[in-house]
Amino acid sequence: MSDLQAIYVLLMRDVKKFVRIKSRLIGSLGMPIFFLVFLSLGFRRAYIPSLPAEVNYSNFVVPGIVAMVLLFSSIFSGVSVVWDRQFGFLREIIVSPASRTAIVIGRTLGGAITAILQAFILLSLSYFIGFNFQISKLPIALFVMFLISLTFTSLGILFSVFMRDVHGFQIIMNFFVFPVFLISGSLFPISELPPIVKELALLNPLTYGVDALRWSTIGFTEVNPFLDFLAIFISCICFIMLAAYFFGKTEVE
User: Fold this and answer.
1) Distance between CA atoms of residues 68 and 122, nearest Å
2) How confident is the model over 199-238, as pLDDT tens digits?
3) SS3 annotation, the chain
4) What is the C-alpha to C-alpha distance for residues 160 and 215, in angstroms, rounded to an integer?
5) What pLDDT score was predicted for residue 137?
6) With contact defined as beta carbons under 8 Å apart, do 77 and 111 qualify?
7) Chain segment 42-86, per-residue pLDDT in tens
8) For residues 82-98, b (16+ Cβ closer than 10 Å) or e, as one string?
9) Which residues contact 165 (CB under 8 A, 6 or more apart)?
10) Distance of alpha carbon 22 from alpha carbon 29, whole angstroms
11) Which one of 18, 145, 148, 230 has the minimum C-beta count within 10 Å?
12) Per-residue pLDDT at 212
C-alpha cells in the first residue's frame, strides 16, 4: 500500500463513519445549536463597547460557535486513535507498508473533513436565525475552517499518542479545550478581557482562527487578517509535524 492510498483509506474511513452514524452528527451539533440559538437570540440587543454599531452580538457570536464545533470535533477525533490502540486496529495500520507520517496525515485529514462538515451544517442553520454573512467570502471562510480543523485534529492526535485510556483522554481534553475556547474571543471580544488574560488569548491559535473566520463572514476583525492567517497556518504546520514525529516514536503493544 502506497502512502497516498493509505491517506485516502484512512480519510474515507473517518468520513464514512461520520456519514453512517447519524447519532454522532446529532450529538455533536446538539450543544452548539443550543449555544447558537440562545446566545444569538438572548443577547441580540446586548451592547458591547468594543463592537462597532453595525455589528450586533448575534452576528458576532455565530463565527465563534462555528469555531467551537471545529475545535471540539477536531480535537476529540484523537479519541479514535486511542480506541484503535485498545482494539488492535492501530497495530494493523502501523505494520502496514504505509509510513507513519502518511498515517498521521490520513487521520488528520479525515478528522478535519468531518469537523468541517459539521461546522458547515451549523453555519447554514445560522441563516435561519438571521445571520448575515458575506457569500462572496465563503471560499475564504471554508479555507479558514479547514486550517482550524487541521490544526486541532493534529493536536488531538498528538495528545492521543501519550494516552492509553479513552476516559482519561476525554477528561484531559475537556480540561484543555474549554479554556482554549473561552479565551479565544469566540463569545466576546478579546479587547474586553483583562490584560493578563488578553495576553494568554494572543498565544492561543484558536484566537486567530476565530478572528479570521469572523473577518471572512461579517468583515469584523480585532487582529490584522494577515497575522490571523499566518498564525493559524504556522500552528497547523507545527502541530502536524509534532504529531507525525511523536506518532513515529510510539510503540503499540
Assistant:
1) 11
2) 999 999 999 999 999 999 888 888 889 999 999 999 999 9
3) CCHHHHHHHHHHHHHHHHHHCHHHHHHHHHHHHHHHHHHHHHCCCCCCCCCCCCCCHHHHHHHHHHHHHHHHHHHHHHHHHHHHHHHCHHHHHHCCCCCHHHHHHHHHHHHHHHHHHHHHHHHHHHHHHCCCCCHHHHHHHHHHHHHHHHHHHHHHHHHHHCCCCHHHHHHHHHHHHHHHHHCCCCCCCHHHCCHHHHHHHCCCHHHHHHHHHHHHHHCCCCCCHHHHHHHHHHHHHHHHHHHHHHHHHCCCC
4) 32
5) 81
6) yes
7) 776 767 777 777 778 888 888 899 998 899 888 877 777 776 666
8) bebbeeeebeebbeeeb
9) 82
10) 11
11) 230
12) 94
Of 146, 153, 160, nearest to 107 by C-alpha is 153
Provide the CA 9 distance to its chain's centre, in angstroms. 22
201 contacts 96 by C-beta, under 8 angstroms: no
Locate 95 and state its grid cell: 505494520
Count of structural domains, the chain: 1
Residue that has been written with the C-alpha cell 492509553 in this structure? 164
Residue type, 31: M
Q: Name the average pLDDT for the chain.
A: 82
Q: Which domain holds residue 198?
A: 3-249
Give CA–CA dist 54/161, Å, rounded. Answer: 46
pTM above threshold 0.85: yes
Distance CA 8, CA 1 (A): 11
Q: How far is CA 175 from CA 150, 158, 221, 236, 241, in A?
A: 21, 16, 28, 21, 24
For 145, list phi and psi in degrees, rounded to 5: -60, -40
**Grid coordinates representing 36?**
447558537
